[in-house]
Amino acid sequence: MSQGLAGYVIRRLLWTVPVIVAISILVFLLLRLAPQDPIDSLLGQRYDEEIAQRLRAKYGYDRPLHIQYLKYVQNLFQGDLGVSTRHGDFSVAEVIVPKIRVSAGMNVMAMILVFGLGIPVGVYAALVRGSFLDPLIIGFWLLIDSIPVFVSAVVAPWLFALQLGWVDLTYEGVLHPNIILPVFVMSLPGVAGVARLMRASVIQVSNEEYVRTARAKGLRERTVVVSHVVRNALLPMVTAIGLSLPGLFTGSLFVELLFGIPGIARESLQAVLGFDFDVVLGLVLFGSVLFVLANILIDIAYGFIDPRIRITAARGA
Amino acid sequence: MSNRTLGLMMGAVALLIVAVAVVFVLVLSGGDGDDGDDTPARPATESADRDDVGDDRSDQEADDRDDGDRATGGICGENRLVTFGDDPATVFDPIQVGDASTAEYTAEIFGGLVTLNLDLEVVPDIAERWEITDGGRVYTFFLRDDVVFHNGRRVTADDVKYSLERAADPANFSPTVLDYLGDIVGVRDKFNGRADDISGVQVVDEYTLRIELTEPISYFLQQLTYTVAYVVDQEQIEDDPNNWTRRPNGTGPFRVKTFRPLEEIVLIPNDRYHLGPPRVDEVVFSLSGGSLSTRFQNDEIHVALVPAVELAGVLSGESELSEFYRPVPQLSFFYLGFNVNEPPFDDPLVRQAFAHAINREAINEVLFFDAALVADGILPPTLPGYSEAISTYPYDPERAAELLAQSRYADDMPRIVLTFSGGGGDPPDNLQAYQQQWREALGVEVEIEAIEWSAYLRELRRGTFQMYSAGWIADYPDPENFLGKLFSGESRLNHTGYASERVDALLDEAATLGDQEARYRLYHQAEQLIIDDAPIIPTFWTISHYLVRECVQNWVDPGTIVPKYRYIEIDTSGE
């Protein structure tokens, strides 16, 4: 790694600090400025002013906002994200880590499906360009893409569980076969995008001179396609995969709600509805850090691939 | 593009793929082992082995089990009940429980001096019998000598005293202790930090406990059945003050085998339960998974709820689900409340006119598909002390118009806002129907306003609403829990501002009367007086619409929190 790149990465990493701080202050304030707090949610109909005051004192919600924020940051530096008021003082990490595992597990499977299906479909569509098969294939996947998840998540269980009896709907963990249906429902709409990107990329690469040269050398068509066209056409996929990395740790709300999966999206919704301050903040910070880091990772990967980007960036920054 | 660049590019792709793979491995390696690791509070039972077997059930085992199911005739092939539940809103600490879902689990895991049977009668639990002396002010409980915690430790009067004092300890912030135990001498002093113990709870000997009340309370035993009075294990709590609720050591018919938030709760029998151990091998509360009714049809779950869209078909007997249908009236009701101190509802005639103007029968039939019962009273039909003789204002638009014409606000109706708790979008259909019926019968335009739940509750406490839509679920099965809590001039849950000397006198007298039938008669008088004064319009009693597999025997929902799963048997004969 050149010095320019190292300096660039360090500068980028340093820039994330103010970004994260700004996000945390913003979310912290948004939560605190709402007309109610976790204690209202916790006590509900049994609210009693005296008990509420004691609880607010226990969690520190009775103190000035800036003190609360500084206290939060102080704890954060000790690796303490706070406690969940909804889950009887379970630590935030204890609440969200299992949910992240579930969502990430499903997302990895979905990602493998999306790229595993999308790339070959795109290559095939590009190769049969001009014939009726090209629009047929892409059209089929666009049709799948245009079915909203909240429709397929209702129809699919009816079809595959009740009518065909292939799957069960009870959630038994990420590794259980019952997870297949929700994973398909959340991933199939994404295939069209990858397929079209791959198709366009393959077509573009096919027109390059080195492909013509390869053909002129008398290489077999198979070799030309696999070694010259597809390998080069995969470049945009780096961006696509990189951009979807932070998405690995988010959840699909409709799928998690309709299939009752204990993932991060359902947890986020519950946390927001229950005004679980620390859990909401923890989730937002986690998501922001991931997003920022993923972007840096992509930039670095690009720097590896194309020195021009590296140099421009190093000079520009 | 040079070969070197291409190589680097492929390297970058490989790097990303490896990164994804690493994440994947991390995700899955940590996935299942959690519950066991995180729960050091496991009681050391004689049957601890059994605990371990099921704890970290790997998915492989889950697969095998599924295959077993298929071979032996679906979900009815095993002696385990699979039902649904809600994620507990608090931990399994009896003194923190404030919501129905957590209370349901807590009632199976813990027990108190007394409990409720399926007919909602107070029956002995840890106490074998009791004597009431001093005009109903002193209760002496004689404890059974064979009650043990799940870990085998014997329960004595000291444990009961500890549990009650823990509930009242100001450091524990119990939101329910004053509501249920506040009538015991010394509870308020302890709660307010003025005393170290509860003077009204005395240990007479190892198995005798005396509780003294500030005044005779005839529903005190009913209050003692609520979770806040349950017995907890001092040793466990002191050993592990932060995590004991994850595997609590109670005295109830079931123990916690697994608790995965948003996923499932599995209870297994306490084989030494003093009132007769459960008959099923485990009870699974599924907190996750797809549509309940689809899973029910797919033979994955024993108990489900009828979806609203299918209710009409199920009720008419045309649906294939009809044979599993089990309606259960709940101990709850919905109502429209008025602020009786603010115009125009400070005039009883206006309130009565509003009550006469709504057609609840039509709303139930058309909008609810008969999912509810029109509330012809406040106390629900399954509540002990219910009377059929009570009646509410019937739908009578002409009479409604007449009453309004006689009222103070006949020609000068102020702006009226009806508030309900909800999010965006249209108000619920029934509220829109009331709005229309008031418009038609009275010529009055009522505005409907939504407000978020916590804010709704806060404004309710402050009494700022002019008119509101609300509901009430019984905490213990006694008329006092409805009439005393909502309509007594002194109750902090009386949000209408209604205060009637006659009603208060009746409620006070009923609260302290020993003779149950005479008490109920007083409550009936009070109930009719309240309805006639119309601080509220009772609208509907709720019914839960269950689907229950035929192999589940003794399945009962008494409509409120009662330990009930120990009665259940699964008929595995395949009938």
Describe the 3D structure.
- The complex is a heterodimer of chains A (about 325) and B (about 575).
- Chain A is an all-alpha fold.
- Chain A has helices at about 5-35, 40-45, 50-60, 65-75, 90-125, 135-145, 150-165, 180-205, 210-215, 220-235, 235-245, 255-260, 265-275, 275-305, 305-315.
- Chain A is flat.
- The mean pLDDT of chain A is about 85.
- In chain B, the strands form 5 sheets. In chain B, strands 11, 12, 13, 14, 15, 16 and 17 form a 7-stranded mixed β-sheet that branches. A 4-stranded mixed β-sheet of chain B has the order 1-10-9-8, with helices on one face.
- Chain B has helices at about 5-30, 35-40, 50-55, 60-70, 100-110, 155-170, 175-180, 185-190, 220-225, 235-240, 290-295, 310-315, 350-355, 360-365, 395-405, 430-440, 455-460, 480-485, 500-510, 515-535; strands spanning about 80-85, 115, 120-125, 125-135, 140-145, 200-205, 210, 255-260, 265-270, 280-285, 305, 325-340, 375, 415-420, 445-450, 465-475, 535-550, 550-555, 570.
- In chain B, α18 packs antiparallel against α19 and α19 (about 500-510) packs antiparallel against α20.
- Chain B has 20 helices and 19 strands.
- Chain B is α+β, with helices and mostly antiparallel strands.
Number of helices of chain B: 20
How many whole angstroms does the radius of gyration of chain A measure? 25 Å
Distance between the termini of chain A: 17 Å
* Anisotropy-based shape of chain A: flat
What proportion of the residues of chain A is helical, as a percent range? over 70%
Q: How do the SSEs of chain A run, as a string of H and E?
A: HHHHHHHHHHHHHHH
Structural class of chain B: alpha+beta
Q: How many strands, which pairing sense, and closed or not: the largest β-sheet of chain B?
A: 7 strands, mixed
**Approximate strand percentage of chain A:** under 5%
User: What is the makeup of the main sheet of chain A?
Assistant: none
Structural class of chain A: mainly alpha
Return the average pLDDT of chain B rounded to an integer: 86
Number of strands of chain A: 0
Task: Report strand % of chain B.
Answer: 15-25%
Output mean pLDDT of chain A.
Answer: 85
Say what oligomer this is: heterodimer
Globular, elongated, flat, extended or rod-shaped: what is the shape of chain B?
globular
Provide the helix percentage of chain B.
25-40%
Cα gyration radius of chain B (Å): 27 Å
